[in-house]
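Hi everyone, sorry if this is the wrong subforum. Our group has a chain we'd like a structural model of before ordering constructs, and none of us has done structure prediction before. Sequence below.
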Amino acid sequence: MPPLRLQDAHLHLQSSLLMADSDAIVKQAQDVGISQMVVNGTSPLDWDEVSELAHRYPEIIIPSFGLHPWKTPEIKDGWKDLLIEKLDSHPNACIGECGLDRWMTGLDKQAQEGAFVFQLKLASDRNLPISIHILKAWGWLLDILQETPTPTRGFLLHSFGGSTEIAKQLAKHGAYFSFSGYFLQQRKIGVQDTFRSLPRERILIETDAPDMTPPPQWISHSLVNQANHPANLSSILTGFAEVMDEKKKRWLSS
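Answer:
Right subforum, don't worry. Here is the predicted structure as tokens:
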């Protein structure tokens, strides 16, 4: 049987932990059925690497350019124009990783919100996919969504760790939710319960490589630096199907 065709909804192949071995990593991912990867930039400092990967692997890499909330303190004026240039130069590009974060200390709330709202409006104006990072900021996000347009195609909350109630509210705004291998840990039963409550058509799977490494039993591909490998996506999907109390074939055929 040929391998399943999968798409990694969110990862960072441009990371220094992966970039040097990208040829081998992409080949290994393709060998287990990963046909596409959404590679998310986090600031102008890595957008060129994302662009390079998209040109090097045009059939598999979907580039995404965004300003991550953790990066807002180090970015100067001009990033908005550069973001638009990157989107214009890649017709299949997405926006992100961007978002809001109250977990990381020392971040300016106003700077975070201004950057996020700009990117959300840009995604709405162009009806582009947008990958959103939220940590301990669900109420803040909901307040913004009440006042800010979103893409008619919806938006992705990557590695979604919110509650079932929050998920229901966000789904009304058009949210999609991606599950990362990190949530296969037994102690993440609350997140697993939330995903059981979501409509299947609103769920995506991601590695967030090189981060969000799954538990050892769901690691099919290891790296010397112990980073999460994009090829782990297939085993993460299998683990997710088991968590949902469903067989893999039933999940994929629905």
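For your construct planning: The chain has one domain: 6-253. The CA atoms of residues 65 and 86 lie 7 Å apart.
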